[in-house]
Write a structure and sequence with these properties.
The complex is a heterodimer. In chain A, helix 5 packs parallel to helix 9 and helix 9 packs across helix 10. Chain A is built from 13 helices and no strands. Chain B is α/β, with parallel strands linked by helices. Chain B folds into 2 domains: 218 residues, Rossmann fold, CATH 3.40.50.300; 65 residues, Alpha-Beta Plaits (2-Layer Sandwich), CATH 3.30.70.100. Chain B contains 11 helices and 13 strands. In chain B, helix 4 crosses helix 5. The two termini of chain B are 38 Å apart. The chains are: A mainly alpha, B alpha/beta.
């Protein structure tokens, strides 16, 4: 079927669309890792991590030995006035991702390098995917470094190694965080394709991020009221209303990420949203779920984040393919 | 014309942006080894034509063949063999000249050793060897333009396409760059260049095509065009010491290809001819017993041809 299709198509292109992909990835990663703005972001994240983890250690020293998941607490424990590290991640990761991609395409336009690069024997596909992967790998590199630093600090400060399950949970959490960054990376890539000015692309990306950070919960509560007006009179109605509210909230990548984080780093969490007393029959409240059950719980969130990333990348891809390259 | 020798061929090539037709049914044939000038004012469809030849923009209709390949279906084969110097060439300012070229060499799939030797050779040839480790951000426009050529040479192209190569260069840098173009042409590379600075490129082009609003209006060598548009294409001026004016005039008048002759002040004779009759004219003066003090020829410029031609076209349209 595929073969006959290929034979019939007169528009088939020669060669691989990914020719030159790794050259682009290597060059862009080198640019990212040496750029001043990345150094600023890295410094910011390292300082945040060091501060929050230090504060968390002060707090959890007393419970070491009793808690089987003390390393996970390094990420989630807050000590007034400092929020927990995951609280910071919720907005540092988008900021980092946007920093990496907001001038990916329009930067080449403005430097007038795009036509010269595309006159080389590569396809546009390789250039765009290369830029995205370079961003994603840089993000992964930075986050992995921070994760290792935190674990290292934890071993030094708490005096015991993490258990296998803790390591596994922390790794899955890392993957989730990278894809949460991937969403914002792809979004910034879309805007960098749409807008010729890098500043406009950066502002548009930050506007979307702020919208989901601050305004989405407000929008959702008023939307829910419009869709299901009136005070709920029965239990069923109240349930429906709460469920609608939760569904709408989950359209925000932030919500998906926060729920995934909670599910992974707090093994006692067994459900999000409303739980009826009948559903809890026989459950040992407060006892931790095994790792596979926790992953099952956050699986929709992970796939959701990956799906948004792919969708946004596809949009950027279509826009970039259709773009006229003459300035 | 032998088909083997046609390296760029377009047939009925058309590009429309919405209702605006940028290039209209263009038939272009460029032979191996020639330097062809795509000349015309801004907005006459030169850059669009170039982008279609490179496969960087899709034609609305018509076909292009570059070295036997279709740039739409075999873009990699075309781009591996054709070098393109865009009109406003850009480099990564945060990288050095050498690093910029390494990126391009890698995109062309060259091995490290091959890339390094070609880069050294190209930088040397363009006179940039001693600034190769400087950041491109500090380069002048002329240096960038030469780095652009070094960038083309890395893939050892059979065809080089240059869009407005002398735009924005000072006269000295432009002259230097025209020399480079001529050298590249002499080394056997086919060159297609576009420009609106007619007087600059007329001396390097073997053939030119004059563009106007997406149409190719005139094509040929500069002499050909002068012949066709200006009629008497060669204007020769002779100055004598004033003796035997009568017999000199008769001798000159009997020369072949003369279209007009008049005597000016200070013993100047001005004659217009359809071919270069300088030596015949000088001989004629000698034979008539005159003493030749000066002999000048005014070669018609493309600017003149262009202005004259479009004046005629516009008059024809009004009438």
């Amino acid at each position: 079927m595929l073969k006959s299709l290929n034979l019939g198509s007169t528009r088939e292109r020669e060669g691989s669309p990914w020719r030159g992909l790794w050259v682009v990835v290597a060059k862009d990663m080198a640019d990212h890792l040496t750029s001043a703005r990345m150094r600023i972001m890295e410094l910011l994240i390292v300082l945040t991590a060091a501060g929050t983890v230090y504060a968390a250690m002060q707090n959890i020293r007393s419970t070491v030995g009793r808690d089987p998941f003390v390393f996970l607490k390094l990420f989630t424990t807050s000590q007034d006035p400092l929020p927990a590290f995951i609280g910071f991640l919720g907005f540092l990761v988008p900021l980092l991702a946007i920093t990496l991609a907001f001038d990916a395409v329009n930067g080449e336009f403005n430097q007038r390098t795009l036509s010269r690069v595309l006159a080389q024997p590569i396809y546009r596909d390789a250039l765009l995917l290369g830029k995205f992967l370079a961003g994603l790998f840089t993000l992964a590199l930075v986050l992995a470094t921070i994760w290792l630093l935190i674990i290292g600090l934890g071993i030094l400060g708490l005096g015991l190694p993490p258990s296998g399950e803790e390591v596994a949970r922390i790794l899955v959490f890392l993957v989730g965080t990278i894809f949460y960054g991937g969403v914002w990376l792809a979004l910034a890539l879309v805007f960098s394709t749409v807008f010729r000015q890098s500043a406009t692309a950066a502002l548009a990306s930050i506007a979307v991020w702020l919208f989901f950070m601050v305004f989405w919960s407000i929008v959702v509560s008023s939307l829910a009221r419009i869709l299901q007006p009136g005070e709920p009179t029965t239990l069923q109605q109240a349930l429906n209303q709460a469920q609608l509210l939760q569904t709408l909230t989950r359209f925000s990548p932030n919500t998906l990420y926060v729920e995934a984080t909670v599910g992974l780093l707090n093994p006692a969490v067994r459900s999000f949203g409303l739980v009826l007393p009948t559903e809890l029959q026989g459950a040992l409240i407060g006892s931790p779920l095994p790792l596979d059950q926790s992953i099952l719980l956050i699986w929709p969130h992970l796939t959701g984040l990956i799906a948004i990333t792919l969708l946004l990348f596809a949009i950027a891809y279509v826009l970039f393919q259709r773009q006229e390259i003459r300035a | 014309m032998n088909d083997e020798n046609l390296v760029i061929e377009t047939h009925n090539l058309t590009k429309q942006y919405g209702k605006f037709t940028a290039v209209d049914k263009l038939d272009l044939q460029i032979r191996r080894g020639e330097v062809y000038g795509l000349l015309g004012p801004n907005g006459s469809g030169k850059t669009t034509t170039i982008l279609m030849i490179l496969g960087l923009t899709e034609p609305t209709s018509g076909s292009v063949r570059v070295l036997g390949y279709d740039p739409e279906r075999n873009p990699l084969s075309v781009k591996a063999r054709v070098g393109y110097l865009p009109d406003q060439i850009g480099f990564y300012d945060n990288l050095t000249a050498r690093e910029n070229l390494i990126y391009i060499a890698k995109l062309n799939g060259l091995s490290r050793i091959e890339a390094y030797s070609r880069i050294d050779e190209a930088l040397e040839r363009m006179g940039l060897a001693d600034v190769s480790n400087k950041h491109v951000g500090a380069f002048s426009r002329g240096m960038r333009q030469r780095l652009g050529v070094a960038d083309l040479l890395i893939k050892r192209p059979q065809i080089i396409i240059m869009d407005e190569p002398t735009l924005g260069l000072d006269p000295e840098a432009a002259r230097l760059f025209l020399n480079i173009i001529r050298e590249l042409g002499d080394s056997g590379i086919t060159i297609l260049l576009s420009s609106h600075l007619l007087y600059q490129v007329q001396e390097v082009c073997d053939r030119v095509g004059l563009f106007h609003r997406g149409h190719k209006m005139l094509e040929g060598t500069v002499d050909d065009l002068a012949q066709r548009v200006l009629g008497g294409a060669f204007r020769i001026k002779l100055q004598t010491n004033g003796d035997h004016a009568q017999s000199i005039e008769e001798a000159l008048r009997s020369l072949p290809d003369i279209t007009s002759l008049r005597q000016g002040d200070n013993h100047w004779f001005v004659l217009e001819a359809t071919s270069d009759v300088r030596s015949a004219a000088a001989n004629a003066v000698m034979r008539a017993g005159g003493d030749l003090k000066r002999l000048d020829i005014e070669i018609p410029s493309l600017d003149e041809i262009y202005a004259q031609y479009f004046e005629e076209v516009e008059h024809a349209q009004i009438a």
